[in-house]
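thought: fold this chain, then report.
action: predict
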Amino acid sequence: MEQQHESKKEGRLTLVLALATLIAAFGSSFQYGYNVAAVNSPAEFMKEFYNETYYDRNSDYLSDFSLTLLWSLSVSMFPFGGFIGSLMVGFLVNKLGRKGTLLLNNVFSIVPAILMGSSEVAGSFEMIIVSRLLVGICAGLSSNVVPMYLGELAPKNLRGALGVVPQLFITIGILVAQIFGLRSILATTDGWPVLLGMTGIPAAIQLLLLPFFPESPRYLLVQKKNQVAARTALKQLRGWDDVDEEMKEIRQEDEAEKAAGFISVVKLFKMRSLRWQVISIIILMAGQQLSGVNAIYYYADQIYRSAGVNEDDVQFVTMGTGAVNVVMTVCAVFMVELLGRRFLLLLGFLTCFTSCCVLTAALALQNTISWMPYLSISCVIIYVIGHALGPSPIPALIITEIFLQSSRSSAFMVGGSVHWLSNFSVGLVFPFIQEGLGAYSFIIFAVICLLTTIYIFMIIPETKGKMFIEINQIFAKINKESEVHPDKEELNELPPPSTLKQ
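observation:
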């Protein structure tokens, strides 16, 4: 009888939890992926629009330098907006809640969607540049808030799988943008404003549906001190009435953190008890972006052409790579609870390291040996598979798991800022590295992948199936602290990690 009771407590994917996950990820994470890829295909048509608009105003065309500068500004506004969005995370999630922040975030999608969709009619390329900044803010918020929201909704046995879903929808967003961006669909003189404006559709759907789903029970109980609302939310999410055990676990975490109160970003860096957690998220988020994923996509078209792929067919091969990314991220959803976070991170970064090394050799020898271009294509695909399994989806999940409620929002601000600054830096610096080093530029990314792998092997523990408080007690040992927060006596009353319920 007790065994039945225990199995009942094993979290399951209820309809409410599944729909909340899908609506949050589709309405927010999908847009991040969509806006990453949406401007790639119609780039030439948009540049032509910039030039014609300038001519209509000044009876003269833009110089090549001015046109390149305006286009670079349009592209770089997205990661810059992402950085701004990351800085807003801490304040908004503590003030409005996780769900409330996602609902507000739709403003940063619907408004720019209208602006971009009407930019050609209005004859204003400035509307596009401002809109790219706004959708960047939307992506910066969603890339941090969605993993946090889903990580706090999910039971511990499903936390990994649901934590990977945001990355899955990012890859789906990229693929959908690539499909709509085909020259036969919306990458046309008249179609590109529609392509850019479609980003508002998922936001509108989320704005209509998400209010019917629960807020994070942890936020309601720990930060809003609303036990009734927290219990109601847990009942909806779990599909049963007996949620006392989980309420007790959340209260235990709350008690363990009471003395510290809210932990700001400055305090986060000062606390010795959180030192290795902070270092870990910086290494993981920087490693994710500096491992060469953007460079691989930048180089991919050139690699396909060198292998003999026709110019008109390159867009379909690129779309195929996007489909591989989606399929492997789906695999990661199921594998993360089976194999664990640590294993997927190690496997992913090692795969990326190997691919970068072999790709360097293949690019250096592609004019010497006839089959080398095909090896280059294989390296691109293997790299995409490796990155989709670990480096892409797992770091945001790790942030949710290795920090407790009082420090989680600040941790996401740090992780998100590192993510977007690294993204921006690669976009800014890589063209110069590629021009200077050519094929050997991937050696830099190989070294970063190897160093990140070594760090993960030595420091990052497995977090699969563990409670948040238990994971933090593991890190307390790494930090050489006897408690999660050494300035608190409450934690002395907690049982050791081995006695906590698995």
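thought: worth noting. The chain has a mean pLDDT of 84.
final: tokens above.
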